[in-house]
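Help! Submission page says 'invalid entity' but I think these are all valid:
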Amino acid sequence: MTDRIGIALLGCAHIPHAMSYARTASESRSVRLVAAWDDTPDIAHRVADRFDIPLARTPEELVARPDVDAVVVCSATGDHRRLVELAASAGRHVLCEKPIATTLADGRAMVDACDRAGVQLHIAFVTRFYPLVQRVRGLIQDGALGDVRGLVGGNRGRPPLPPTYPDWITDPARAGGGALIDHSVHVTDVMRHVTGLEVNDVGAEVDSLFWNAGVDDMALLSLRFSGGAVGSVDPSWSVPAENPWHYDFYLRIVGTKGALIIGDTTEGLNVVGDVGRAGQVFVPFAVDIDGLMLEGFADSIRAGRVLEPCADGPDGIRALEIALAGYRAATSGTRVPLPLEPDA
Amino acid sequence: MVTQVRVGIVGAGFIARAHAAAYAATEGVKIIGIADPVREKADRLAEHFGSTAVADLSDLVSLGIDAVSVCTPSPTHADLVEAAVAAGVHVLCEKPIARSFFDARRIVDAADKASGIVMIGHVSRYEPDHARARDVIAAGGIGDVRMVSQSILSAAPAWSQDAWLHDHNQSGGPLIDLAIHSFDYLAWASGSQPIRVQAVASDTAAGPVTYVLITIRYANGAIGLVESSWGHPLAYGFQVATEISGASGRLWWEYAGISGGRMATEDGAVTLFDTLGDRGFRAEIGAFIDAVRAGGPSPVPATEALAALRTALAAERSLSQRRPVALDEISS
């Protein structure tokens, strides 16, 4: 198995995702988890000890390791640019956590750095890898719905608060915002991915009335797409503590010839018992989309190009742009046309 | 022992049939007459319910009625409600209250002066699912309301006389005729009125502006989404999905999940057993008749229906001007 792609975790500050990618990578037949680094020793040790991998003392040391072919950047969003540029300069391919960055300027710099270095930049839009999403994409490409006219999607969750989540996710300076930037990017990316349409303008209502976390926890995006379709996205951290599931993803689409709905809160068991929480608990049996994404990353590296359905840097910028336009729309009380000006 | 209430129905179309069936099932109510300018429609409905077919409201009043249901196209509501009130008759007027803000104000004014009650037929409030959800919220079951959404997806209505529902000037399309249900219900259930809306819409196989998404901000800070479609295939079924999130909980339900059972037969047909049936219309008509007997108050006052129409008209303006519109911009 010497041809497995050597993967290292460059930043683990998104702890739940870092843990999930590490677990998936350690079980994979196509990648090998070789090392990790994080600037918080406690976080770094949690990952390294759990998966029995060496820790690098510095990010430079990590990307210089000869067994590292590619890195997964799971740092705070505001640190993505520095780490991605470092990985690119060392010639390492990158899978970067979403959103790509907190600003368009950072996102574009990351795309440029990877292009210049000739390495691939993937963005971790795992939702693309749901088999149902791919099925919908195929149906739309085959014309089953006719022309797409409307899309409503959501990705709601519990608030990502400590101790389960690190505190940076609810720090607008390091995360770029709250629920709107955290969750909308998954939904807008899937909308773009399955329809091939781009967003023309964005309206939004944004507020923080659920958790008092100091950052937006509820939002609704109002979207106009190229070709006349319209859409709405709910990215809110609106899931109550006792809810049977932690987060959801759903998408309804209507076209000139048909309509469909998909969701991920049916693919599981309903359990009342001893599974960590009281009450009814949803225990999913869905496929491991993190695993499918890592396989796609590894396959793309072997192929020398970003393969379907992996998301690349420009995909990350498009989704970020919609989220930033949402914040701007909510602040200004207007609809905000895309693309945003380059310095946004 | 209840006193008999003598009712008439103006209009003999799709909704008039629902009203008639509910009146027929209500104790102490007699359907005195059914009026429609299309005589065959009035004849057909009158015959089915053992009533008398007439041409118009004045004929009904001549027959001697206590109350009337107005089940005609929206732009005709104001004239009919004013005439019924002038004749001293209690009125149940179908939703939307009117097509224009001006007409809706006329109805509110008529209701203010009326000796009897004027009720607007926002039947959603009486559907067992909707009503129970509102009860849960009112009892504090999910805390203060923070987010609301309602999605009503259907095929284009095929039943309207001369296709008036497809004439934007008469019905307003799904943005007004269908979304009005959601505007009224969500405000009533959450106890707060919209202060700002923005709408986006697209054209579907059902025609121009037949798929609409309305984003709403409420006075209490809550935000909401209303999705209204006439552009879905008939086979998709009439789908209603509602979700309301509060500070301490969430409730949601959808038609796809509340059928009480299903039957499949060897011809390939699948029948879902609807649990709602006509319970909403029966409860609405029952509330109307109870109010008539009690001498008021109106179970759904015209002022509340005016507020729902104001939301719809603000959404209509948002659509044409491509910007968020404050509700207080709609005043004439």
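Support: the input was valid. A stray whitespace character was the problem, and the output above is from the cleaned input. Chain A has a mean pLDDT of 95.
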